[in-house]
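Issue 218. Parser rejects a valid record. Input:
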Amino acid sequence: MIGRAGYDLLRAGLRVAVQLWPLWLFWYAWNLAYGWWSDYLLTFPSSQSGVTWTTGYAAAVAAWPTVALLGPALVMGGGVFLHRTRAGEAFVIMRGSPPLRCGHAIYFRRPEWDGLVGDNRFHRGGQGNRDAAE
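Output the parser choked on:
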């Protein structure tokens, strides 16, 4: 009985972990963007003690929370991009031109082409569902 309870607890914990992975990914992206902006702020001469803040440094400090949210926004944009592209698509990138979005051709066999092509490797039943449709 204790073994079963431990198994159920582990299973529930894994289910929660799988359901919360976007939150963990967003937290990691936010933390990364926050750290990068913090490192960027240290490059300003105004960040040294005893030096008055410049307008640019004050604006950069004020923009810190907003910039930290760019990390999760970029992750979300990448997720939307990957969701909208099909698994069978590829992007061809050439210098001097925009990227080409190439999808796999979907081939539908027409009856007049049966003599020109070989057997249909996706359907072993010869004519397929054409007889059922007629």
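Fixed in the parser; the record now loads. Strands lie at 90-92, 100-102.
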